[in-house]
Amino acid sequence: MSTKIKRKVDIAEITTSRTFLLVFIILTVYPILFVALTSLKSTEEFYTNVWLWPKKFAWSNFPKALIDAHIGAYFMTSLIVVAISVAIILLFGAMAGYALARLRVPFTGLILFLLLSTTFLPSEMVIMPLYIMMSKMKLLGSYYSLIIPYVGWSLPMTIFIFHRFFKTLPIELLESARMDGCTEAQTFTKITAPLMMPAIATCAIFSFVGLWGELLWASISLSMSSLRTIPFGVISFKSQFATDWGPLSASITLILIPLIILFLFVQKYFVQGITGGAVKG
């Protein structure tokens, strides 16, 4: 009797979990599909055929978004800013995480606590001081006004993830390298670097996704400049073309493409980083 009851409970748990998972997938994927389908419709068809498959593919929406609305230029600006920012974040985050995990830095726990505490500050709290600082340094409206804050905002969590990753590496591995005459720099680059892909993938995706869609600071720092990141450009594009939903959806689809490509390339290591050493306690 108890076995039958347990089996029924297991079936109920599996059914419930799969139902929630299915609902979550639908809620996540459907908006993406909706935007992709809308990008292939003309504005006239959008108002008469909102939910169904396009009757005629309006491929002209993409050239209109890329050229007429300058989304192509905004795309390149975002790509340059985010790529440079992520590269700096990964480099310095990995070195700082290694130092805190394996070089016996005093007050490591306090340093990590202070770093992580900065991530809980509301972004509105730092916008005004940051704007004043960038203005006095005459960096507003430039690539530097985006890259420097982006690096500063993403480094604390990146350092924490790398720190937890390096803590999972066997200390014997590092000690044997030192006994063979390797310096700390050689140990870092030759011994630990080949093992860092899960942590790198985890940090790269988190940083890229967060920075690629960042709008608040970009709209403030670039308000007096001709530079535009792609989220800021989409806002301008919407106000310029009002209800031209086809090209607007095409520009949003273009925003999603780099995120999908990045995840497809590093999904294997990302899953390892999430479930394994990158965040293992």
How would you characterize this protein structure?
It is a multi-pass membrane protein. InterPro entries: MetI-like, MetI-like_sf. It is found in: Cell membrane. This is Carbohydrate ABC transporter permease. Keywords: Cell membrane, Membrane, Transmembrane, Transmembrane helix, Transport. The radius of gyration is 24 Å and the shape is globular. The relative contact order is 0.14. By secondary structure, it is mainly α. The protein has helices at 2-38, 43-48, 61-68, 71-102, 108-117, 123-136, 144-168, 171-179, 184-192, 197-212, 216-221, 230-241, 245-275. The protein contains 13 helices and no strands. It has 2 domains: 2-38; 61-275, Orthogonal Bundle (MetI-like fold), CATH 1.10.3720.10. The model is unreliable at 277-281 (pLDDT under 50). Helix 4 (71-102) packs parallel to helix 7 and helix 4 packs across helix 10 (197-212). The two termini are 40 Å apart.
Write the layout of secondary structure elements.
Elements: H1 2-38, H2 43-48, H3 61-68, H4 71-102, H5 108-117, H6 123-136, H7 144-168, H8 171-179, H9 184-192, H10 197-212, H11 216-221, H12 230-241, H13 245-275
Helix pairs in contact: 1-13, 3-13, 4-7, 4-10, 4-12, 7-10, 8-9, 10-13, 12-13
Question: Can you describe this structure in just a few lines?
Answer:
The protein has 281 residues and is mainly alpha-helical.
